[in-house]
Amino acid sequence: MKFPLVFVTLLLAVCGVCHSASSNSVKIKTVGASYSGGTTPAEVTAKLTLPEGEKLPAVVIVHGSAGPDSRGTFHSEYLVSSGFAVLELDMWAARGVTGFNQRPKTTLDTLPDVWGAWSFLSEHPKINKGKIAIMGFSWGGVNAVTTAFGKKPKDSPPSLAQAKFAAHIAFYPVCDIWVRNGIASRVVDQTNPTGAPVQIHNGTRDDYDTTPDVCQSLKTAHPQMPLEIFMYDGAHHGFDSTNSQPIQFFDPVAKNVRGGQVTLVGQDQARAKSKETVLIFLKKHLQGN
C-alpha cells in the first residue's frame, strides 16, 4: 500500500517530535535560607525536559499553591517543541505540603528553590547560562516578579551575587501587592529592577486582587522596568489550566492580604492566546528572533 507523500511527510514530522526531547526527574539543591525561619529542604525534585541541541535557552516553571498541575504541562509542551529546555519545579513534595493551608508562610521562602533551579541550569552543559527565563503561576508568578527586582534568598551564597534571569513571565502574580503600599513593598526593594524584560498575564475577572485593573497600573508604578501587561477578557485566576469547572476557595492572602473568595477556572481562548504571546516574547529575548 502506497501512502501519499504529504501523509508520509506529516508522519515523519510527528515521529521526529516524539523522539526529539528527553525528560528526566532531577534533584535541585536549594541555595540560601527562607525568610520566615521555616525549614528549607536541602533539595527539591524537578522535571527536566531537553529538546535536541546545544546551548539551549531554558525556562524554569514555578507552580502555584496547588503544586504542579495542568498549567505546567500545557506550557512545558509547547516550549519544548519550540526549542526551549524546561525545568518544572515541585517545591511542595520535599516540604510535605499536601494541602492549601500547609504552604510556606511567604513566597520568599521558596526563593531558595527558584535560585537553586537557576544554578542547576547555569551549570548544565546543554544550557546557555545567559538565556534562562522564569515562568510562574500565582505563587510562582509572585516569585517571577520578585526575581525581576533581583531579590535573592536569605543568606544567599556569593555565587548568586551577579545571577539574574534573562526574562520573567508571571501569570496572575497578585498585582496589587506590587503597587505603592502593597505588601511586597515591605519586603522587596523595588527601586532597582534587574532590567530583564517582564511579561504579566491576568484575566479581567481575576478576583484574587482587589481589582484586576491594578495590573495595568504597574507600568506607571515601575517605569524603569521593561514591562508588558496582557489582560484576557472574561478570564479568571488560573485561566491557563484545563479545569473546565470553576473551583472556589477562600485564600487569606487574597485582596492584598485581607483575604477573600477566589475562583479558579480555565478558559480555552485565553489559554491559547497566552501561548502565542509567551512564545513571541521568549523567541525575541531568548532566541533572538
**Low-confidence runs (pLDDT<50, min 5 residues)?**
1-19
Shape: globular
Main sheet attributes: strand count, strand direction, barrel closure: 8 strands, mixed
Count of individual helical segments: 7
CATH class: Alpha Beta
Spell the H/E element sequence. Answer: HEEEHEHEHEEHEEHEH
Average per-residue pLDDT, rounded, comes to 92
Helix content: 25-40%
Which CATH-level-2 architecture? 3-Layer(aba) Sandwich
Distance between the termini: 42 Å
Q: Care to count the β-strands? A: 10
Q: Give the C-alpha Rg.
A: 19 Å
CATH topology, which one? Rossmann fold
Strand content: 15-25%
Q: How would you name the CATH homologous superfamily?
A: Alpha/Beta hydrolase fold, catalytic domain
Q: Helices and strands: which structural class? A: alpha/beta
Main sheet strand line-up: 1-2-4-3-5-6-7-8
| Tally of distinct domains | 1
Structure description:
It is a single chain. The chain has about 290 residues and is an alpha/beta fold. It has one domain (about 20-285): Rossmann fold (3-Layer(aba) Sandwich). The chain contains seven helices and ten strands. It has helices spanning about 5-20, 70-80, 110-120, 140-150, 220, 255, 270-285; strands at about 20-30, 45-50, 55-60, 85-90, 125-135, 165-170, 200-205, 225-230, 245-250, 260-265. The strands form two sheets. Strands 1-2-4-3-5-6-7-8 form an eight-stranded mixed sheet, sandwiched between helices. Strands 9-10 form a two-stranded antiparallel ribbon. It starts with a helix and ends with a helix. About 45% of the residues are buried. Residues about 1-20 have low confidence and may be disordered.
